[in-house]
Amino acid sequence: MRSVGYSLLTWATLTAILNSSSATVRYQPEQVHLSFGEKERSIVITWSTGNKTDSIVKYGGGGQLLQTKTGSCSLFVDGGKKKASQYIHRVTLYYEDPDSLQPETKYYYHVGSELGWSAIYWFLTPPENLNGWAPSIAIYGDMGNINAQSLPRLQAETQAGIYDAIIHVGDFAYNMDDYDGEVGDEFMRQIETIAAYVPYMTTVGNHESAYNFSHYRARFSMPGPYENMMYSFNMGPIHFISFSTEYYYYLRYGFKMLVKQYEWLENDLKEANDPANRTARPWIITLGHRPMYCSNRDDDDCTRIKNRLRYGITPLRLFALEDLFYKYSVDLEIWAHEHSYERMWPLYNYKVYNGSYDQPYTNPKAPVHIVVGSAGCQEKVDSFNPLPSWSGFRSSDYGYSRIKVHNATHLNLQQVSDDLDGQVIDEWWLIKEMPRIKFPLADELFSSQSNSPSPQKVGNIEQNHLRDSFEVEK
Ligand SMILES: *[C@@H]1O[C@H](CO)[C@@H](O)[C@H](O)[C@H]1NC(C)=O
Ligand SMILES: *[C@@H]1O[C@H](CO)[C@@H](O)[C@H](O)[C@H]1NC(C)=O
Ligand SMILES: *[C@@H]1O[C@H](CO)[C@@H](O)[C@H](O)[C@H]1NC(C)=O
Ligand SMILES: *[C@@H]1O[C@H](CO)[C@@H](O)[C@H](O)[C@H]1NC(C)=O
Ligand SMILES: *[C@@H]1O[C@H](CO)[C@@H](O)[C@H](O)[C@H]1NC(C)=O
Ligand SMILES: [Fe+2]
């Protein structure tokens, strides 16, 4: 009799196990990454779980996780057939909170809930005096899940502590929405090895266009109200501005955000040029995915004089960015999309404005453009047309750039070749002896008119631009 009771129990247990195993639970946190938050010094920690859980970060200096901060999560549903879902958790650590972050401290942390914790990661906080901070940043575009050639080197360098942040200038995973979002999940796991240690700041690219950029908007946590599409942030003496070049090409998603962005850009640039701000943060660097200039052999828009970003949308030249960035003395414009590295001479309207012939980048008389889209993806690298007079150096090696801002007058840039085992193949200094350089044509060009288009002009032009991006996707 005893044995019958025993086997009945076993049967009941077995049935229960069989029933429940028809759907797995996914409480385990994954895809952990950091970003700078709304307030200077604040750090946002973002991660995903398949099933809904609490959103908790346990952290502390000195290796003990004695502090706790909770946040919230939101449901993200992929637009594909499977409607794959995940919860995206966000917790923000503020410097201002009592007992929160201290300057220049190494914090250890893990994320999760009572249902499961991640591994332990760490990050370093900036020093007390932000204006005297000399941060070091790795920057690249166009990194995929397949053939992410630069990633192992970036993993080694980031975990060795040589970077204060990483900036990814568009085109992630190739593509985050593929296979019902599995490619995005795998890519986010891949970059966890760098993005969980330093803020991973992002710019949107054309590969994020699916479902109106929903994966890009949902997965990252950049500051500002525009779901990562446009925002600015400060790092020591640098004011970074990240924006969407894709609004110029995916006009089928509507003109509204393009109009909004142009307004936002002008306001942000104005504010950054307020004398107190420009003195505290003399460097203004823009981040946009598709370039205004490039000399690649592929007939992309950046090879054309009437490039939409540079020249504006024809025929009225709406939202032209070259004049806007020139007017507000942007120092450096960083682009990607072309799978190569290219450094231009100081440039405005296809004319070179060297500081001097021997030292083109000392007190340059126009912004400097670089293209850094060769981190590595399944589309390989791009080749070049003959060297134009406005281009200084080019390479189709896989790799990424490093920026180190030394102070208000000296910015150091390096291009690392992964093909050549990490060798620096281009190194140069951007130097300005006066923190605020007004470019020579600024006054005469912009004294009178405002470039902001009227709503009526926009309405007319919208009719002519319902077709999509016309170039080969890359
Ligand atoms: C966990 O999520 C899956 C779908 O992602 C769902 O089918 C399952 O019911 C969830 N389980 C619990 C316990 O919430
Ligand atoms: C795409 O998203 C933007 C907000 O980022 C919204 O204004 C626009 O209407 C959307 N377009 C479509 C076609 O859904
Ligand atoms: C300008 O300075 C103010 C006051 O420090 C600051 O709140 C603001 O974010 C700055 N704006 C820009 C665009 O740097
Ligand atoms: C700008 O400087 C570079 C480097 O010296 C030089 O090769 C180039 O010809 C210069 N361009 C002009 C227009 O002076
Ligand atoms: C700025 O940095 C450069 C390069 O490290 C250095 O040569 C220069 O002396 C520094 N300037 C000041 C004012 O510290
Ligand atoms: Fe691209």
From TrEMBL:
Family annotation (InterPro entries): Calcineurin-like_PHP (IPR004843), Metallo-depent_PP-like (IPR029052), MPP_PAP (IPR041792), PAPs_C (IPR025733), PAPs_N (IPR015914), Purple_acid_Pase-like_N (IPR008963)
Signal peptide: 1-23
CDD domains: MPP_PAPs
Matches recorded under Pfam families: Metallophos, Metallophos_C, Pur_ac_phosph_N
Purple acid phosphatase N-terminal domain location: 29-125
UniProt biased composition (Polar residues): 448-463
Residue span(s) of domain Calcineurin-like phosphoesterase: 137-341
Enzyme class: hydrolase
Similarity annotation: Belongs to the metallophosphoesterase superfamily. Purple acid phosphatase family.
Purple acid phosphatase C-terminal domain: residues covered: 366-427
MF-aspect GO terms: acid phosphatase activity; metal ion binding
Protein name: Purple acid phosphatase
Entry annotated with the keyword Signal: yes
Feature: compositional bias, Basic and acidic residues: 464-474
Keywords associated with the record: Glycoprotein, Hydrolase, Signal
Region (Disordered), start-end ranges: 448-474
Alphabetized SUPFAM superfamilies for the sequence: Metallo-dependent phosphatases, Purple acid phosphatase, N-terminal domain
Catalytic activity of the protein: a phosphate monoester + H2O = an alcohol + phosphate
E.C. code: 3.1.3.2
Gene source species: Frankliniella occidentalis
